[in-house]
Each structure stands twice: as C-alpha cells, then as structure tokens.
Amino acid sequence: MVNSLPPFDFRGWRVLVAGGSRGIGRSIALGFAQAGAAVSICARGAAALEETRAQIAAHGVVAHALPTDLAQPEAIQAWVAGAADALGGIDVLVNNASGYGFHDEDEDWLANFNVDLMAAVRASRAALPHLAGSAHPCILHTSSISALRPRPGGSSYAALKAALSHYTTSQAQALAPRRIRVNAIAPGSIEFPCGLWDQCRKDDPTRYAEVRAKIPFGRYGTPEEVAHAALFLASPWAGWITGQTLVVDGGQLLAG
C-alpha cells in the first residue's frame, strides 16, 4: 500500500503522470498525492482513470484527469495544457506509459515508438514552458531493465526502452543549463492486479515461477517500490542527480 511511502513533503508541487491510472503510474500518482502534491493523470481507459483520480482527490489535493491516447500528439498537448491550467503550473512530469508491444511485428515496433519514446518526447516538449517557471523542475521517465541487457523476446519493447534511457541522458544534458533535472527509472519484473505478471501467473504459471526464481529477493516487485524511487528522484534530496537511470529490480539484473 502507498501508506508505506517515505515521508517526502510535496505540498505546493504540481505533478503530471502519463499512464497514471493503473500499476506503476497509479502508485506514483498516489504517492505524490499522499505527500501533498496536486496531481494530474492521463490514460486511455476512462473508468480506471476516474477511479484513480478519485483516490488522488481523497488525499485532499487537486486531482485532474483526462482520457488521452498518448500515441496522438494533439491529445498529449491537450492533456498537458489542461493539467497545467488545473494545477496552476507544472513542477514534475512523469512519463510512464508503454505501448506494450512484445512481438517482432511492425505494429509492435510502432506502438512502442509512439508511446514509450515519442509520447515522452512530446509531453516533455509541451511541459517545458511550464517547467521553466518552476522552482524545482524535474522530468522522470519509466524505462526498464529490458533496456540494459539483450533478451530473447520482446526486442521491440527493449529497443525503445533503451532509446528512452539514452534520451534521458541527452535531455538531461540539454536542460541542465535551465536547471531542469531529467532521470529515468528502470523497473524489473513488477506484479500488480491485471498487469503482465499477474496475467502470466494465471496463464503460464511455469514461466511465472521461473522468472521469480531468478530474482535474488525471491519475489516480484511492487508498484509502490517503484513509486518510492520516483518520489526520491523528484525530491530535493536528489537535487544533484540528473541524467541517470536508476534500476529498481530487487537484484534481478545481477542474476543475468
């Protein structure tokens, strides 16, 4: 549960989370809300989006949500503009959405290109004028440990996450003179209701067990554990950190 989050104080901050209705994005959004930030989220599914928006608002903060297809540039512009207006500005942008293309087909490559990479580029571009007016501007991207090692399947997903990690370093260098920090988080295998590993547990328990056995901690990670890292990287405690990709995987990469 998100009530275990570190005691960061984000009162007065304005945070946008793309892909914020479920899983990691939802936990990041709720973590910031619990710490006092006004939060805007977007995703395609209106029902889950509204449910999460209500949970954000229950923390007594401004909560904004807009159904958004992050593969569409105009939709991203509309969400960022609406969020900045509702929240009164932007301090933190979290690009968390994924196209979840795991096959070697054109549509998988394009889905990952448009959502994992270009949505982050476009949202950053739209948010930049607002971030420039913030006292503590920060951009966070959700990459993956898949970006850091070869894998037998899901090459399109891994390749675009690797591109996102590289974009993080280039963007950090470009925005450093404007004192805008840019970092990424690379989660390992994270399990949550209706997520990929939850579905794998039901559909392919053998593979589920094999992957879990390769994680030194002996379990899958939780979205809240990724949210902990996001709040740290956005906070003043990480004020001298930029251009980095922080692995959050319980040692999964150590096992190869």
Automatic annotation (TrEMBL):
Q: Pfam families attached here?
A: adh_short_C2
* Transmembrane spans: none
Q: Which Gene3D superfamilies match?
A: NAD(P)-binding Rossmann-like Domain
Its organism's taxonomic lineage begins at: Bacteria, Pseudomonadati, Pseudomonadota, Gammaproteobacteria, Lysobacterales
* Family according to the record: Belongs to the short-chain dehydrogenases/reductases (SDR) family.
Q: Which PANTHER family match?
A: OXIDOREDUCTASE, SHORT-CHAIN DEHYDROGENASE/REDUCTASE FAMILY (AFU_ORTHOLOGUE AFUA_5G02870) (PTHR43639), SHORT-CHAIN DEHYDROGENASE_REDUCTASE FAMILY PROTEIN (PTHR43639:SF1)
Q: Which organism is it from?
A: Rhodanobacter lindaniclasticus
Q: Which Gene Ontology molecular-function terms are recorded?
A: oxidoreductase activity
List UniProt keywords, sorted A-Z: Oxidoreductase
Give the protein name, as stated in the record.
Answer: 3-oxoacyl-ACP reductase
